[in-house]
Structure formats: C-alpha cells, structure tokens
Amino acid sequence: MLSTYLPALVFVALGAVVGGSFAVLNQVLGPAKSKLVATGDPYECGLPSEVKQGFRFGISFYLIAMLFILFDIEVVFLYPIAVELRAFGTFALLETIVFVVLLMVAFIYVWRRGALEWK
Amino acid sequence: MSINWYLAVSATVFCIGAAGVMLKRNPLVILLCLELMLNGANLSLIAFSRMWGNGDGQIFAIIVMVVAACEVTVGLGVIVALHRRRLPIDADELRELQG
Amino acid sequence: MIAAAATSIKAPYIDWAAFSPIVALICGAVIVLLIGLLPGRRVREQIVPGATVLTLLATLGLTIWQWGENTSIISGALAVDRLSLVLNVVFVATGLVTVVMSLRERATVQAGQGEYYTLLLASLAGMAVLVAAQNLVTLFVGIELLSIPLYVLCASELQREKSLEAGLKYLVIGSVGSATLLFGLSFIYGATGSTDFSGIAAALSSKGETIASNPLMLTGLGMAVVGLGFKAAIAPFHQWTPDVYEGAPSPITSFMSVATKAAAFGIFLRFMDVAVIDEALTWQPLLAALAAITIVVGNVGALAQTSVKRILAWSSVAQGGYLLVGIVVSSAAGLEATLYYLVVYVVMNLAAFSVVVARERETTHGDSLSAFAGLGSKRPILAVPMTIAMLSLAGIPATAGFIGKLNLIGASVDGDYAWLGVLIAIGSAISLAYYLRIVAVMWMPDRRGDSPETDRPHGQPEIIGLAIICSAATIFFGIIPSPIYDLVRGAGESIGLL
After folding, report:
1. Which residue in B has a C-alpha nearest to residue A80's C-alpha?
2. CATH, domain range A2-112
3. What is the pTM of this model?
C-alpha cells in the first residue's frame, strides 16, 4: 500500500532537497546585502514595490519574452516522439533531426538579426 | 466521471475568453483571452480523446498549444511595433480605420 | 497503456513525389529567409525575389508533374487530387503576381525583403496544406499556417499606422475565428471519434441517425462553419474585411482577396462534400441562408464606399456569397462551378488590383476613387484593364465572370436551389451600381478639373504588364471558356461526388 505512494514521496523529498539547497546556497554564496534596504521591501526580489504610474516594460523584454515563448513551446513536439520512440525507430530519429534543423534555422535567423541583444 | 463535466468547464473557459475578447480594450488582455478560447477548445479535445480512447485528440491539442503560442507571439510583435511608433495601445483608440 | 499497444506501429509511408509541391514551398521559405540575412543591397532587391520566384516555379513544375494523381498521402492526412492540384496552380500564380506587385513596395523594405517573401511562401504553403487537408488536424494546421504569416504581412508596412492597425485587427478577429473553428472541430471529433474526413463520414453514415438528433455534432458543425466563415469573409462574419483590406499594403490585399479566399473555399468544399456529405440535408439550408445574406450584405455594403480598395473588399464579400452557392448544392456540378468561378475570380480581381497598385504609386490620392478620375483619357493603358475587370466582376457577357456566374446559376437550379440562382442575378444587378461607378469616374470627362497629377507615368512597366495580361485573360476566358472547363473537370469525381 505504502509502496504505491513511494514515487510521490520521493518526488516531494527531491523537491524539498533541491529547493532547500538552492535557498541555503544562495544565503551562503550570495553577496551580503545591507539588511536595512532589504527588509524595507515586501519581497527581496522582483520589481521594486513602488511602481510609478505608467511604468512599462522595455521593448527588449517583449522581444526576449516572445522568443522564449516560441522556442519553449516548440519542444512540446518532442513529447509524442518520446512516447513512441521505440515503435518508430529510425523514422522518429529522422523526424527529430528535421525538426531540430528547422529550429536551428529559426535560431540562426534570430541571432543574425540581433534580436538576442539586450538594448 | 461523466464527460459532461469536462465539457462544461471547457465551454465556460471558451466563453470567458470570447467575452473577454469582446469586452476588453487592452490588446494584451485580448491576447490572453484568445489564449483562453483556444485552451477551452484544447480541454474538450483532451476530454474527448480520453472518452474515445485514441490519441488523436491529444496530438491535436499539442499542435494547438504551439499554434496558440505563435499567435500570441505575432500579436506581441505587432503591439511592440505599435509601441515603437508611439501609438495608443488601446483597442478603442485604434480609430484610424472605421468599419 | 497506449505505449504498450503501440509496439506494432509502422513508420508511415510518405509518398514524397505527391508531397513534393508542399515540401518545395517550405524549403523555399527557409532558403529565402537565410538568403535575406546576407548583407548587400543587391541580395535584398534581386536575389531574394528571384529565389522566391524560383521556388514558386519549382512548385508549379512539381504540381504539373503530379497532375492526374489521385491519392491520399501521409496516413490519409493530405489528399493529392484534382481539387488540390488546381488550387495549387491558382496559389502559385497568385504568388508570382504578388511577388511582381511587391517589387517596388515600401513594405518589403520596411519589413525586410527576406522576411516579407518568406512569410508569403509560408502562407502559400499553408494554403497548399489547407486545400489538401482531409483530416481535422491538418485542416487546423493549414489554416493557421495560412493565417499567421498573413497577420504579419498585413502589418508589414511598419511606418504606416493603418497597416499596423490592420495587422492587429486581422490577428484578433482571425484568431477568434480559429478558436471558434477549433472548438467546433473538437465537438465533431467528440461526436464521431475520428479526425479523418473519411472516418467522420463513416461514423455519420453508420449511426443511422441524423445530425439533428446529435447535439454534439450539430454544435460542432455550426461552430466549424462559423470559424471557416470568418476566414472566407462570409457575412455576418465579414466585418473585418473592409478595414483589413484597406489598411494592408496593396499587394498583400490583393493576395488576401484572391488566394485566401480560394484556400478557404477549397477547404469548405472538401470538408462539406467529403466529411459531412451524408448530412447535406441538415446543413444545406444553413449555408443557403449564409450565402443569401452574404450576397445582399456584400453588394449593399459596397454602394456607399469611396475608397476603391474598400469597394473591392465589399465586392469580394459579395463574390464569396456567389461562390458559396456552389457549395450549398453539394453536387459535382456545384463543386466544379465554384472551382471555375474561383479561377475566374482570381484572374479578374488580380487585374483590378494591379491597376489599384499602379495608381496608388502614381498619385498622391492613394486608393481613393478620385485617383481614378479622368484615367480614361490620360492613361488608357490602365483604364482599359480596370474597365474589363469591373465589367467581368459584374458579370457582363463576353467576360469570364459572366460564364462563371452562369455555371453557378445552372448548378443552383440543378440542385433545387433556384432561388439562390435568382439571388445571384439580383446581386449582380446591384453590383453594377458600384462597378460602373468606378468605370464612370475613369471615362467621364473631368469637369471639376481636380484629377490627380501623374508623377511617374512610366515607372512601373511590370505592373501595367500584369494588368494587361490579367484583363486579356479575362476576355479570353469569356469568349473561349473551355481551357478552364478542362482544368476543373473531374474535380467533383476525384473527391467522390456524383
């Protein structure tokens, strides 16, 4: 009975260990901050809490965000291939290569057009 | 669980999206609502895929996800271009073209 | 589990020969994009359009090579038959015309030549996929591959507000259409358990009940028709058309008004006449009503316009209504009449748009009706093609438009929808009012003397050439219609219609 839940427990434990270790490492390795500045804010990261009216994200932010959405979501096409990899064999490999080459073309285009440079 | 519940949720999500597209003025919110419409349809695709026990609906849903991302990206691109021209980013103020 | 049952799957056999036109378009798009990255003005202004033309010619060659094929490829996802091959030829021809029209277009400079032509080729690939689709998934992929590049192309004149606005509007409305279509398709899949057109047809005919008793199928079909209606600009889902047509760069407007329309009607034909043909009695009245509304709304809407591009936009809505009549009757005659009229419509509309593009660059009046004032006496070389195009769009005898309308009316009478045939005739009568208005503006002596100056009368021989070729073809096919008959004959049988 308990063994059915074992993968879930392992998963939770792994999550806790990874998350916790990053938090601790950050504390140990990160630059020491002046406590006065940090404690005044509701959060210690992200945007400043007092945002001026009319604040806008820069154009570069949108550009990178757009590219991120695209390249991020394209990977979803690899899931069905991963599920049926053994059944399809070489065909799956060839399809993946074609797919990755097309992604590479997109990447070369984005890179050469200078869309990856933060302005 | 009956398929009807999934369909009810998917129809609700679709309708929220449709209402948002018609009522909201900020193009960014409109893009969000378009995404809701597509995801509503996605939910019903996956529910039907489960009902029929074949994978067609799931493959369809994966493709729809990518298409939705492309649409949003193009939308953001046009909004950025409008922004660069210092044009109002408000659907109601886009009055240059009158239907 | 799915994975366990799947060990016996064989990799799908791909008939590369039949698939080759689409592959050529996509490879061409990738190559043009990469060429566009190379530095140098010559690369941008000559090599990129040249590579685009080469791609289109290669696609045309491969399409002609496959002529007469009637197979289904890639596990039944795409059909290579008379319907898709004829429309492929139409798309390639439109693409070539668009490339020529775009040679001096500002949008190509502002958006970048490589990008502009890549998007054009990608959109054409989408159209080729769409009209060959015989599976709900390929249908959706095709429609999006067609639309998304077009959204960008509409907005490609980055320095002009109207163009950007048109792009955003088209994007939002087009996406609403796609989402509605998708929701409809998901219900059709839910009702039949298949995404294949043949599977859907089999499920419908085996159940022994009509769609009317199956709310899921009925809702799905309704929403799918609405979604396709958005793409094909069928009233009441046409409101975006005048705005987007006016705002987009003129070569793109011309491309949209012919190629997108042909693609949307191509899939309309295949979907209605293959997937849900067994339920024709259920959807015929619905489509008949839409056709009637579209004919009336399109023709009445055009009457009050003063911009030629807007008049042509409304006229394209009305022409869509005529085309829909051939789908309503769901017979081989109806399909061939629609296909025939599509080919003719493409030729005459391209003639009209070439003149609009030429005039837009010659004068400062843009696409306003006043840009055409007194054209007959000053520039007959442009006025004559425009007149022929207008008369043909109105359906005057001895033009190709007349024969096309005659076919549609004939098909509607044979299909027991004679009242739609009457409506086509009435619509054409109304349309004379606005088509002849353009003709009158061109040929009437200019009393007020405010006709626009022609700055560079001889600066664009290629567009004048296009106008002459397209209008000559309009007259030629009006007198000798048999070549187009030969082209479309057998399209009905190729998808299994009687």
Report:
1. B59
2. 1.20.58
3. 0.86
